[in-house]
Amino acid sequence: LEQSRKRIEKSVGPDSAAANIDIALMIALMDITDVPDKDLPKDLILGMPLTGVVQAAPSLRSKKPKDKTPLAEINAATKNTNRKIIKNLSKQSQEDRELCHEMTLKEVAEKKVTSLKLATEYELKNSIMTPRFVIHQAKPRLIDNLKASRVNETAQCHDTYVPDTIDRLLLQIRTLKKAQNNSEPIHAFAFDFQSAYKHIGIHEESQIATKLVILDPATKKPLVTKMLCQPFGSPLSPRGGEWSKILNTPQQFFLE
Q1: The pLDDT of residue 175 is above 50
Q2: What is the pLDDT of residues 33-57, one digit of tens each?
């Protein structure tokens, strides 16, 4: 590290916080542990203070989220909103209606939604209904459009807080990539969520906004079901799928 220390000392000012830190050792440790923030040593050398107010990252919202819309306001407009929803659902292809119906019946069996029933005139005029339809990506996916039913307006969006526990676990796992000249096979676990979505319950106060509507593929009449779990999941779920990609060096997996 000595050559690296001498080179860094030439760039560090006397008043810099980096003058009291072994930056060369920091860089070496960050390389070994594969820490993602590679710019930290450079920032310290350039004079970043160790304490004080840190400016928000550009990726974070610069404006406060909008105030949520009162549920009463959305309820008052359900008749017109539901009319538009049914009209848009009728534009689906017959194949997509059949697929949506089939996938919904599967969720009924899995107890993610209630049994389908014919929507009543009262429900169409007075109940908040979220349209459900299918989109085609790598595989067909069910979409519950909470924006169309205005359910999204009843909540405020905030930047997701991710506990650092997972980060620490990932850091330990990623160090396995650095193992070299080991006569023994590297043993590791690849972790993933069995279900990335639809595993969080719904509070009873929110039951009023849980109705979903699809069209019967045979009659094209609206069918109603109710969500029994939230359509999203743990904020860590999307990151779970990355773990098996990170563990691409180990020679053996006990669990994948």
Answers
A1: yes
A2: 877 777 888 888 877 777 666 666 5
The mean predicted confidence, pLDDT, of the chain is 76
Contacts of 115 (CB under 8 A, 6+ apart): 108, 225
Decide: helix, strand or coil at residue 118: strand
Tokens 């006569």, residue located? 183
Distance, in Å, from the CA atom of 136 to the CA atom of 245, rounded to the nearest integer, reads: 24
Nearest to 153 by CA among 69, 86, 34, 251: 69
CA gap 7, 217 in Å, rounded: 72
Nearest to residue 89, comparing CAs of 209, 212, 177, 172?
A: 212
Candidates 108, 68, 74, 71; CA nearest to 198 is: 108
Q: How far is CA 164 from CA 59, 138, 171, in A?
A: 19, 31, 10
Q: How many other CB atoms sit within 10 Å of the CB of residue 126?
A: 14
Of the chain, the end-to-end C-alpha distance in Å amounts to 39
Provide the whole-model pTM: 0.57
